[in-house]
Amino acid sequence: MEVQKVMDEQKITIRPLVPELCEDWLQYFDKIAFQDHEDWAFCYCLEGHLDRKTQEEWTHPGERRTKAIELIHAGEMRGYLAYLGEKVIGWCNVNDRENYRYLTAMFQEIGYCPENIPGTRVKSIFCFLIAPEYRGRGVAQSLLNRICEDAERDGYDCIEVYPFSDEKFEFPYHGTRKMYERNGFTETADLKWVKIMQKRLKKKGEQNMSNTVLETMKLRSSARAYSAEKLTEDELNCILEAGLQAPTATNRQEIHFSVTDGDNPILSELDEEKSRLRGQEKQPHNFYYEAPTVIFLSAEDGFRWGGVDAGIAVQNMALAAESIGLGSLIIGCVYDALHGEKKEYFSKALQIPEGYSFQIALAAGHKTDHKIPHTYDFERQVTVL
Ligand SMILES: Cc1cc2nc3c(=O)[nH]c(=O)nc-3n(C[C@H](O)[C@H](O)[C@H](O)COP(=O)(O)O)c2cc1C
User: 285: Cβ below 6 Å to ligand 1?
Assistant: First the structure.
């Protein structure tokens, strides 16, 4: 019977791989999955699970098949099978990111640091394998829908995928960029041969509402690596205007913004003074992580709300930066240096007005790191009376 007709008559069901389904999985890999690609039949979907050396050495299907059985029974090989009736027609290898040895090693090799927040739970999709005659008929989409639903229900922060950069690659087993884009994934890094894309999942407490302001707030994260590319005048003005648009107590508008280029020598002096006061050795980065622009916010002395107003303004600026594709970092660590014995010297150099004191700073530029936004514990931090 024609494939589409069968698919119209029988529903696709998706089942998580459990040891009891190991036989179905093996049958699929032994006989169905690589019917059109016998040269790949040795694979047994181990690429993500082996270190690179073993992956390269193990070219024989026998030892790989045995290893796959072992991993399935140990619950280490995870993923979903797509069934049409009782027949397996597709498979997707999905796991917690840290369980993919291959990814961890690959990231280390190229010095890529996806994020550094303990407790962030990332689900990775490593491989799709749809039976030849069922390709292009929505099987991968059905698998992806189920993966997203389960990951959200299980409290994951995001799903991460690795589509090949070469969109013409004949066997895009990591899933295609187009499919991921259609499903709300966005690119977070370009590792040349693969792109990294992520889809952030809703956490408990997040309302089912979305607009660009909320999306920007969700996506913003401190950037601690920048390219040397300077901000354009429009970009800088966009950030400054966001600061000026922020509310101030009694509409006093007492915040002053001192804009410096990252290569202004006063910043090196300030960095040294900060380190001296903190008893720090030479740090791998300066306090603004070599960003091309640093903006210092100061407030009128003696005005009770100066610190709060500066905080509101700096967050407006950080969000503005994020919304136009820039990275930013809010910086408080130079507070003591700017309030200490050299206060007058630094205030003068930064053209902080008379009778004003530093409150907070913002570094901004083109970010070269991509950190997943921080997680939070809604229950702990919120009390609804
Ligand atoms: C008032 C304030 C001062 C901060 N000062 C610094 C700083 O001096 N250096 C730094 O690297 N990060 C600084 N940060 C950034 C925080 O470490 C960061 O916001 C926090 O770890 C949460 O991460 P996220 O911004 O990526 O969500 C500061 C943030 C705030 C709100």
Answer: no
Name the phi and psi angles at 235, rounded to 5. Answer: -65, -45
Q: What is the DSSP letter of 232?
A: P
Overall number of domains in the chain: 2
d(CA 10, CA 6): 6
Q: How far is the CA of 179 from the centre of ligand 1 (A)?
A: 35
- Domain shared by 180 and 243, yes or no: no
* 93 and 188 housed in the same domain: yes
- Of residues 119 and 141, more confidence is placed in 141
Q: Which residues contact 44 (CB under 8 A, 6 or more apart)?
A: 29, 61, 64, 65, 67, 68
pLDDT, residue 190, reads 82
The neighbouring-strand residues paired with 189 are 196
For residue 57, report the phi and psi dihedrals to the nearest 5 degrees.
Answer: -75, -35
Ligand 1 pocket check for 374: Cβ under 6 Å: yes
Residue 355 near ligand 1, beta carbon < 6 Å: no
Higher pLDDT, 57 or 320: 320
Residue 331 main-chain phi, psi, to 5 deg: -130, 120
Q: Is residue 375 part of a domain?
A: no
Residue 241, φ and ψ in degrees, nearest 5: -65, -35
What the block records as the tokens of 327 is: 């990275």
Pocket lining: 312 vs ligand 1, CB cutoff 6 Å: no
Q: Does pTM surpass 0.85?
A: no
The DSSP letter of residue 298 is E
Tell which of 159, 180, 200 closes a domain: 200
- pLDDT band for 109, please (50, 70, 90 cuts): confident
Kindly state whether residues 243 and 347 are assigned to the same domain.
Answer: yes
Mean pLDDT, range 54-59, rounded to an integer: 84
For residues 108-125, give the mean pLDDT. 72
- What pLDDT was estimated at residue 102? 80
By alpha-carbon position, which residue is closest to atom 7 of ligand 1?
Answer: 331
Q: Which amino acid is at 20?
A: E
